[in-house]
Amino acid sequence: MSSGIRRFVLKILLYGIFFLGIIFLGLLLPPTSTKNILFSFGDKIILAERTKQINPGKPLIFWVGGSNVNFGIDSKLIYDSLGISCINTAVHGGLGLKFEVNNALRLARRDDIVVLMPEYENFWDFNNEMADGQAELLHTLIDVYPNGYNMIEKDQWRHVMMYLPRYLHDKYIQYLPGNYRHRYEKDYGVYVRHNFNAYGDAVLHLEKQPVPFIAMPKIGAPVNTSVLTFLAHKSELFKKKGVRFCILFPAYQSTSFNNNSEAIAQLYALMNAYKLPVYGSPSRYVFADSLFYDTYYHLNAEGRKIRSIFVQEDLRHALAEYK
After folding, report:
1. Cα 102 vs. chain centroid, distance in angstroms?
2. φ, ψ (nearest 5 deg) of residue 2
3. DSSP category for residue 210
4. CATH no., domain 31-322
5. How far apart are CA 26 and CA 252, in angstroms?
6. How do the domains of the chain map onto residue ranges?
C-alpha cells in the first residue's frame, strides 16, 4: 500500500472517529431541559403504576393518544359518570401511535379499558409517518424513559433514527454562547412537565385566553394502511390479554375538518373495513373553531367538557357490547 493511500485511509478513519465522537458525546450530554412536557411521560408511568396498586382487582380506563387527548379530556367528569378510575397517558403526538399503543398494552391488565383517540396525522402516508414517532420520541427514549426501547417495533427504528441529526442539534445548541443560561430559564408555558392533575389530564390551559393558530390545510396523502394493519394486530393482542380496547376519533376544529373531510371519510371507511373497534364517527367530534385553545386539536375548557360527555357516552356503548 502506497503512502498516499495510507494517508487517505488514515484521514477517513480520523473523520469517522470524529463523526462518531460527535454522536456519542451528544447522546451523553444532559437533556436540554427536564421541565418540558416530554418528561411528563415518565411521571405518568409512575401515576399509572400507583393507580393500579391502589385499585387492585378494579378496572381502569387508560386514555391513549397525543396532545388532543392530553389537553382535551376531563377524566373526573367521566369517572363521575361511569364510576371507573381513569389515567390519561397521553403526552405529545410526536411519540407516535405505535409507541403509545404499545405502552398501553404493557400497562393494561385484564378487564382494564384502553381508549385510543389518535391524531389523524398518524394515518397519512407521508415520508416520515407520524405513527412511527418523530423527534419527540427519540428525545423520550434517550433522555426521559430509556426503558421505552422495548416498546419500539422493529420496522420503526429506521424512521425514528432519521431524527438523530435534529436530536443532536437540540443537544449541542444549548451550549452555544447565550444559550446555556437560556436552557434553564425557558418558559414552556402550558407545555411544561407538571401540567397534569391527579388523573393525568393537562389543565394549565383551561383558564387561559385562546391563542391564534392556522387550521390544518388540505391533506394530499393517501391513508397508510400499514397503520391499520398494526391496529388490527394490536386489537387481537389486547383481546388475548383480556383488555377491552376501543378507538374513538380525536377532537378536531371545524375548519380543519372541512378542509379534509374527504380524506377523513376515506380513513373512516377503511377503519371499518379492517374491522377495528371504532365507536362514534369523525363528525361527532368536530367542534366549532371557538372551542379550541391554540391548535386544531387542543380544546379549551368548554370544548373539553363537551367532548368528554361524548366520550363517556360512546364508551358506555362500547362497554355494553363487551358484556
Report:
1. 11
2. -70, 160
3. P
4. 3.40.50
5. 37
6. 1-27, 31-322
Angle between helices 301-322 and 75-82 (to 10 degrees): 40
Question: Which H or E run contains 180?
Answer: helix 180-185
Q: How many angstroms separate the CA atoms of 62 and 259, rounded?
A: 31
Instruction: Give the model's confidence band at 323: pLDDT under 50 very low, under 70 low, under 90 confident, else very high.
Output: low
Residues 98, 63: Cα–Cα separation, whole Å: 14
Burial of 26 (0-12, 13-18, 19+ CB in 10 A): middle
Contact 72, 303 (CB under 8 A): yes
For residue 55, how many other CB atoms are within 10 A of its CB? Answer: 15
Residue 17, number of CB atoms within 10 A of its CB: 10
Kindly state the cell numbers that stand for 309. Answer: 360527555
Q: What are phi and psi of 64, to 5 degrees?
A: -130, 135
pTM above 0.90, yes or no: yes
- Summarised one tens digit per residue, pLDDT across range 274-285 is 999 999 999 999
